[in-house]
Design a protein that fits this description.
Layout: H1 9-19, E1 41-44, E2 47-52, E3 62-68, E4 80-84, E5 87-88, E6 103-104, E7 113-115, E8 122-127, E9 134-139, E10 147-154, E11 161-166, E12 173-179, E13 185-192, E14 199-207, E15 210-211, E16 220-222, E17 226-231, E18 244-250, E19 256-263, E20 267-271, E21 281-286, E22 290-298, E23 305-312, E24 317-318, E25 325-328, E26 333-339, E27 347-353, E28 363-372, E29 375-382, E30 391-396, E31 401-407, E32 412-418, E33 424-426, E34 428-434, E35 438-442, E36 448-451, E37 454-463, E38 467-473, E39 482-487, E40 493-496
Parallel strand pairs: 5-17
Antiparallel strand pairs: 1-40, 2-9, 3-8, 3-10, 4-7, 4-9, 5-6, 10-11, 12-18, 13-17, 13-19, 14-15, 14-16, 14-18, 19-20, 21-27, 22-26, 22-28, 23-24, 23-25, 23-27, 28-29, 30-37, 31-35, 31-38, 32-34, 32-37, 33-36, 38-39
């Protein structure tokens, strides 16, 4: 009888690098077929997926797509491409009851943006209101930390403003506090399906008095590799509500989801999903010159939440005079106007339980306004997780870029790397110390000889967790146009359990 000794480590490693999870254990009573457990190794992911919504329906819209992967440990040549979705419904006529009706995108198999090497961003431009949603994937050494940014400028019209969004990974569950069904708002949730089969999505709306009556009972079908925008006000017959929380959940499959908000007076921008419900949240990157800040929160569980509201300023953590605490009833959306809470100094909002030991999970977002009178512009800041090992923001400019770093707990040290530019330049690196309980807002390093735009990568060196956001400002005809993107851990690596198993006892 022949005996063969096999190692399963390679198989487990390959599986985990693709799926993000692997486990190997001995059956109960086994006395030696598995070696002693060792600490999991962290390996680069081998594939990433990103989705970008259709940027605008305005004929005067100007959109820039930027794709970037940090220099890392990925293997193989790899590729990273953003391609048009197979079909994109028109936002101006989108009706959830006719969501499957969509116009086909031209040249859906031709990349709009193709990245060929890590460390150097690439960009592409699109004009007008016909630019489709994009579906993208990255593999090999371009997959770990792959980031894409979509920045649109609309100088005039109902959707005017500077709209920025980090293209998102597909998921099955999203929360969007800060949306609205008010008459002066036109808020659309954009749903993009990256897969080859259709998926069905449920959308629930929650206002100050609880769930809003829905006109949809069978969900919204999002065709394969297609994108559907849904006007929130068409989903309910309840009276218009200024503050609404949107819950998007798939019955099957997965989607990318983000809300595009347009206000008749304040302009427009994208509202990304909040971090998962938690008892403590950080909303980083309120600009120093914000003239109005509105906090919107929602408690999805069975318990009410009593939240302590604090502002992490450049010098320490303070309690805003406008709101020391916020009570959020279960299943209801609560909001408070914090006015010009930053008082000329950049800051970040910290939410925590008002009473220790009574943490109730919530989701939250900020609506931030700059300017006054007819020259106002809006942006949104959702609660976001820490940068962790590494996080990246693409499409930074030589002027108008501000990086906000917040350490809600212990003092932390972070390394910030500016990549080469899309048209050339030499990378630059700088290290910052962020004192505990403060927000540090800086003009980040700029590549020497910069041509085009560049990417910023933030890495935690030591200390406590750090939360970050990037503000991109570009005034236009007196309007302080801007957009804010939060930076979360890029999840460029996954834990892979290491184990070896001797199969000789199984025989031949």
């Amino acid at each position: 009888m022949n005996r063969t000794t096999l190692s399963l480590a390679a198989a487990v490693t390959a599986l985990a690098a693709v799926t993000g999870f692997a486990a190997l254990s001995a059956p109960e009573g086994d006395t030696g077929t598995v070696t002693n457990a060792v600490l999991p190794a962290r390996l680069p992911v081998e594939r990433s997926t990103l989705l970008c919504p259709a940027p605008s329906n305005s004929e005067v819209a100007e959109t820039v797509y930027t794709s970037f992967t940090p220099v890392g440990e990925g293997e193989g040549a790899g590729q990273a491409e953003l391609k048009p979705s197979a079909a994109t419904a028109d936002e101006t006529t989108a009706d959830p009851r006719k969501a499957s009706t969509a116009k086909k995108a031209p040249a859906a198999d031709k990349p709009v943006v193709a990245l060929t090497q890590p460390g150097k961003p690439v960009s592409a431009e699109a004009d007008g209101g016909d630019a489709p949603a994009l579906v993208g994937s990255a593999s090999g050494r371009l997959a770990p930390g792959w980031t894409a940014q979509q920045t649109t400028k609309v100088p005039a019209g109902g959707g005017r403003g500077m709209l920025g969004v980090s293209c998102t990974a597909p998921d099955t569950d999203f929360w969007f506090p800060g949306a609205s069904t008010a008459a002066q708002r036109a808020d659309y949730v954009h749903l993009t399906n990256p897969d080859d089969t259709a998926t069905v999505v449920d959308i629930e709306l929650y206002g100050p008095n609880g769930a809003l009556k829905t006109q949809l009972t069978e969900g919204i079908t999002v065709p394969a590799r297609s994108s559907v925008p849904v006007l929130l006000s068409t989903l309910t017959t309840d009276p218009a509500a200024e503050d609404v929380t949107v819950h998007v959940a798939t019955r099957s499959g997965r989607v990318g989801a983000v809300v595009r908000s347009a206000d008749e007076k304040l302009g427009s921008d994208w509202l990304p999903a909040s971090a998962d419900p938690a008892g403590t949240l950080v909303l980083p990157g309120i600009p120093a010159d914000a003239t109005s800040v509105r906090l919107v929160a929602y408690a999805p569980g069975e318990d009410d939440a009593q939240l302590k509201v604090q502002l992490a300023s450049p010098t320490g953590t303070i309690v805003p005079a406008e709101a020391r605490e916020l009570h959020v009833k279960s299943g209801m959306t609560a909001a408070v106007d914090l006015k010009d809470v930053t008082r000329g100094e950049a800051g970040s909002l910290l939410l925590s339980p008002a009473q220790k030991g009574r943490a109730t999970p919530v989701v939250a977002a900020l609506r931030v306004v700059r300017g006054k009178g007819g020259d106002q512009e809006v942006a949104f800041i959702p609660a976001t997780g820490p940068v962790g090992e590494r996080a990246t923001a693409a499409d930074n400019r030589a002027e108008g870029t501000t990086l906000s770093l917040t350490a809600p707990g212990e003092t932390a040290e972070v390394k910030v790397t500016a990549s080469a530019g899309t048209g050339g330049g030499t990378p630059a690196t700088k290290t910052y110390t962020v004192k505990g309980g403060t927000t540090l807002a800086v003009a980040p390093p700029v590549p020497a000889g910069l041509k085009g735009s560049y990417a910023l990568t933030v890495e935690t060196v030591s200390g406590g967790p750090v939360h970050a956001a990037r503000t991109l400002a570009e005034p236009d005809d007196g309007i302080p146009m801007f957009t804010v993107q939060t930076l979360a851990d890029d999840r460029g690596t996954v834990e892979v359990p290491t184990a070896r198993q001797d199969l000789s006892v199984l025989g031949d």
